[in-house]
User: Fold these one by one.
Assistant:
Number 1:
Amino acid sequence: MLQKMNLLVVEDDQDLGEMIADSLKDLFQTVEFTTNFDKAVVILTDLKPDVIVTDQNIEGGFGIALVAHARQKNVNTVAIVQTGNPSLELQTEAARLGSVEIIEKPFDAQLLHLRVSQLIMAETMRRKMEEPVTREIRNFQ
């Protein structure tokens, strides 16, 4: 069973964003949706989402910049960035940030659900693998 996590959806198209949030709500404890970068930064700070699904071009900024901001604030998150133009520059930045997947628009809702499920499982396993190390370090001190 997947551990319930928090999701932030950022999409400038209100209808598409609501569809994404609704289609993924069964996988998450909390789902927050916004259409703009500045509101996403506030939600990011408050919610500390485990997963971000964002459009690359959003009102007030870029999805990949939101992921970079999360990394700077030490928010432990994985992300999917949707774009109609998966440029080499975007893919390079996603690889540099790590735990970022690029999905080309238009995309199938079932594919998005599958990719998010895979990211959740991988992140859950990564966190479980870190637990004993963290516990051992605390015991050593």
Number 2:
Amino acid sequence: MLIVNSTYVLYNIVPFAFLILLISIFIDVFLDYFRKVEKSNKKRFILYSFIFYLISLIQIIFGGFTLPQNPADTSSRFISTNDWFGIFDTMHFNISIWSYSAIFYNVILFVPLGISLLLLFNLSNRKAIAIVILSCLVIDFARLLFGWAGLTSRGYGNVDMIYLLLNILGGVLGIFLVNCAENLIRSYQLKLQVK
């Protein structure tokens, strides 16, 4: 029997994706010079922040990507090239499953998704919640497939179902925060109009 021990490098996708994002921002601003109608800077800022959040979310969830592994491996080690997201890797791989920080981390990870859905796309609460649930399911299914194919270092375990529920809770919390902020702003504006 042949024993194979391999080491794989996990590649960080954020720097490459960030460069592509910067180029697309430059092109968008350059084309704005030739357009007749200018885009709202606030909407543009929220959109680009959302795209950067999605890029970072993919890196955090998957922990990096590698080339397909050798099926004959009996022991695989992964070397992370992540300098930028080292703290997230430490949190993701070394936190106790039931620690408060792991629970907080998994809830807070999807709060920007809920916020962005309402601010960017003006969706109703039901549609936004449905998209949050669907997004969390698609991400976890993709992580399962990439782990099974050997493209990421993590597979999928029983605890990940709890993390899935915490991620959904985070997205719904983001929607709730936007609704609360909108209600506060409306009530403040009404108070100003009464005076």
Number 3:
Amino acid sequence: MKALVIGGSGFTGKKLIELLLKDKDYTKVCALVRNEIDLIDEKFIQIKVDFEALSSENIPECCDIAFCCFGTTIRKAQTKNDFRKVDFEYITHFAKLCEMHCIKEFHLISAIWASPRSIFFYQKVKGELECFINSLNFETVVIYRPSVIYGNREEFRPFEAFAAWISRNMNFLFVGKLKRIVAVTGDQLAKTIHQNSKKNLLGRLIIESEEISKTQ
């Protein structure tokens, strides 16, 4: 298989690329990047792009599956408009180009409680994004809705550190519907995506944080 990834320089995206490169079933792993990733492998191809001007020419031929680990936070984007540009406009444009190139399978990292009807801006944008991706002509769309994603990031995020401590030390609190909000590690999310990409899934699927947290 030949994979196409965006968001490969991010926390989860880089972990996913490393898993794909170790997998013999993946003969090529292509990443669209703004800045080169510090990763070298004979199967790995980096394509420098400007996501403001992403075009069909930037999409490699004959890719079978696309992975979107792309995104930002409202804090980083600073404004709601800039957040929507990255997390909706850039991703939907990329997805349409994938559809044009007849890529059959699309995996998307979204967020817990994503819904176009949400009263919260972040979840509303994520929900609108999910609806758009699901409307495209892919044979398979798999959407991941992690709660907090934690691990050894380059930057310290206090809320993530707190959520990680709760998940490790007070896991007994997460029962019933509360299981859905359990935090997951970047490794668990990357492994879940990789494993699902090997299952020949069809249709539209949503993987909640509870299921991601079970991945070893």
